[in-house]
Design brief:
The chain is α/β, with parallel strands linked by helices. It is built from 11 helices and 10 strands. The strands form 2 sheets. The protein has a 5-stranded parallel sheet with strand order 3-2-4-1-5, sandwiched between helices. Strands 6-7-10-8-9 form a 5-stranded mixed sheet. The longest helix has 18 residues, at about 165-180. The radius of gyration is 20 Å and the shape is elongated.
Length: about 260
């Protein structure tokens, strides 16, 4: 039986802000060297992946041109099924079975965390292949590190409901759990909905609860602040007042 290749979990940057200039800051040299060696890829978005690889090439020359690489997209089983795509993780991992090393890349941050790549990682384990995580930025951990909130006990909630009433109910539930367990609650939101999420927090949560916003983490426009809900309400009394946050990647952290 042929030896299986290794699945390398390759981090991406957290934004498009001067990607080439970001790389030495957010990705270690060994991560860049290993990324440059790979010819077989599974990515969330090919356009984003090509942009990262082009930036990597300027620091650590790629083993082959981007056009010569074998690159498949994976957006998760549920999303693929929704659009009638019958491809399965095992189909995408065939180069691994043939003995080739592969890279798995998220659209932003690290694969497998708030990312559909976890399904492929599990499939690689089931094949008996080695899985190697490479060091890179995670908005969730960067936000927790910089928040000043409880880093000993925390829970990541992914995305909260989009419906106004369901979102408010979920925020109150997370606040109650945080208060009971003294647990930091962490979630993310798509950039175009981040101000609506902030307004929901300010209208649904108790004045004394602490909320941290981590905006554009690792970018030159980074903003991190932890304030009580009462103080956030003074800073952003309405959605128009927080227009500067619109369309900027944001991680939310709450401690009641």
């Amino acid at each position: 039986m042929a030896k299986l290749g290794t699945l390398f979990l390759t981090p991406n940057t957290l934004g498009d802000d001067a990607r080439t200039e970001q790389l030495p800051w957010v990705l270690p040299s060994e991560t860049l060297l290993q990324t440059a060696k790979l010819k077989h890829w599974i990515v969330e978005d090919a356009k984003t992946a090509r942009a990262l690889l082009k930036a990597v090439d300027s620091i650590s020359p790629l083993a082959c041109t981007i056009q010569e690489m074998h690159m498949s997209e994976w957006r998760g089983a549920a999303r693929n099924a929704k659009y009638g795509d019958a491809v399965k993780p095992a189909d995408l991992l065939k180069p691994l079975v043939a003995g080739n090393d592969m890279g798995l890349m998220s659209e932003a941050g690290v694969p497998g965390v708030a990312d559909p790549g976890a399904e492929l990682v599990l499939a690689a384990h089931q094949l008996g292949a080695q899985v190697k995580p490479l060091v890179g930025p995670s908005s969730i951990l960067l936000g927790l590190m910089a928040s000043g909130l409880n880093g000993q006990r925390f829970a990541f909630q992914g995305y909260l409901p989009h419906d106004t009433h369901e979102r408010s109910a979920k925020l109150k539930l997370l606040e109650a759990e945080s208060r009971k367990l003294q647990q930091t609650q962490i979630w993310i939101e798509t950039p175009y909905r981040n101000t609506a999420m902030l307004m929901a927090c300010l209208s649904s949560l108790a004045p004394q609860s602490l909320l941290c916003l981590g905006v554009d983490l690792s970018l030159t426009t980074e903003m991190i602040a932890t304030l009580s809900i009462a103080d956030w309400r003074k800073r952003y009394p309405n959605e128009a007042a927080c227009a500067s946050l619109q369309n900027r990647p944001t991680v939310f952290l709450l401690l009641a």
